[in-house]
TrEMBL record:
Family: Belongs to the zinc-containing alcohol dehydrogenase family.
Transmembrane segments: none
Native organism: Marisediminicola antarctica
GO cellular component: cytosol
Gene3D superfamilies assigned to the protein according to its UniProt record, in alphabetical order: Medium-chain alcohol dehydrogenases, catalytic domain, NAD(P)-binding Rossmann-like Domain
GO terms assigned for molecular function: S-(hydroxymethyl)glutathione dehydrogenase [NAD(P)+] activity; zinc ion binding
InterPro entries with a match to the protein in the record: ADH-like_C, ADH-like_N, ADH_Zn_CS, ER, GroES-like_sf, NAD(P)-bd_dom_sf
Domain Enoyl reductase (ER): 11-362
UniProtKB keywords: Metal-binding, NAD, Oxidoreductase, Zinc
Cofactor(s) listed: Zn(2+)
One Gene Ontology term from the biological process aspect of the record: formaldehyde catabolic process
Descriptive protein name: Alcohol dehydrogenase
Pfam families linked to this entry: ADH_N, ADH_zinc_N
Amino acid sequence: MRLARAAVHDGSSSALEIQSVEVADPGPGAVLVRMGASGVCGSDRHVLDGDWTLPSPTVMGHEGAGTVEAIGAGVTDVAVGDHVILSWFYPCRRCVACLSGKAYVCTGSRSEECVLPDGSTALSRSGERIFPYLAVGSMCEYAVVPESGAIRIPNDVPFDVASLIGCSIATGFGAVTHDAAVEAGSSAVVVGSGGVGLSIIMALKLVGANPIIAVDRSAEKLEAARRLGATHTVEAGPDLADRVRELTGNGAAYAFEAIGRVETIESLPGLIAPGGKAIIVGLPPQDTPVAIDALALAESGKSLIGSNYGSTVPGRDFPRIAELYLAGKLPVDELISHRIPLEEVNEAFDAMRRGERARSVIVF
Ligand SMILES: NC(=O)c1ccc[n+]([C@@H]2O[C@H](COP(=O)([O-])OP(=O)(O)OC[C@H]3O[C@@H](n4cnc5c(N)ncnc54)[C@H](O)[C@@H]3O)[C@@H](O)[C@H]2O)c1
Ligand SMILES: [Zn+2]
Ligand SMILES: [Zn+2]
């Protein structure tokens, strides 16, 4: 057992408290990771703002990377000293989906319950159990995760970069390459240019999409979008569909929503040309259905695709993305606008609520 500083959500307040929590030793099949860095993702904000219900109290953070400090019995994939990226959807490796190479729709994972495969958690506070968000809880100096949720990467990838590969980058890269399967030379529009939207833009540049149209309310975000690969930027407004048609002729081949707002998700079909694909990446609050004109969608042969974690297979995709970074093809470091200590996590969420900062990363 050891003590660690962590950002704890009590289940009601939208502000996190920095507290000392107890971290148990890793049991069979589990890995103790000393956190190097944790990104501050829009999904953490949804939880703090009460958009989604979750077991609590919770140690927040699901976008993390660090060093293996100890391994439990039977662990063979990683060794002490390895650098790992944590996956917020650890695969069970046994269900039909896992056996079919589709770990992203694993039915045996208990990540969403925020527990280890045996239903336990390694975190507590004065005898009270604490849940690590999505079985990661990266806003803490230590995490205990299942072996299948700790993916070894080359030691020369900095932790701040590696942490972002664990959520926003994998989500954006996978939404573009797996879910949309964007071809070189095809047009794309990205509605919302925060951490996830900018990750989509980087991946679109990598695969050679053209034009790449970034949309946001914030001038700061649109500037970052241009830096990372957008060929055009459009300030969000009621004339968005007209602006996209002006730039693409008949609508984009691909449209991504990366905010999580009902209205912008509903606007997606109007941004794409007949036969185009609209990809929902942003996540709205729970129990908020969207309205789609199904007749118009079907008659124009448009597709509406839900994208979760970019259909990432962590063991395949994290090392692949890390190598793209090392090869200079995916400038993940340029997504990081702020490196902060754990104590400044609430300021990072407040800035996010105001639409500021590309990505804050907590560095331990
Ligand atoms: N599908 C997945 O697997 C997955 C993974 C990670 C995050 N997400 C979701 O993606 C969404 C974005 O996350 P993020 O970390 O990038 O958050 P973020 O806050 O960094 O980005 C949101 C962006 O949307 C912009 N925005 C807000 N309202 C707007 C509007 N009306 N029009 C245009 N732009 C607007 C903001 O200025 C900001 O730049 C969240 O809903 C998050 O939960 C989904
Ligand atoms: Zn499985
Ligand atoms: Zn995330």
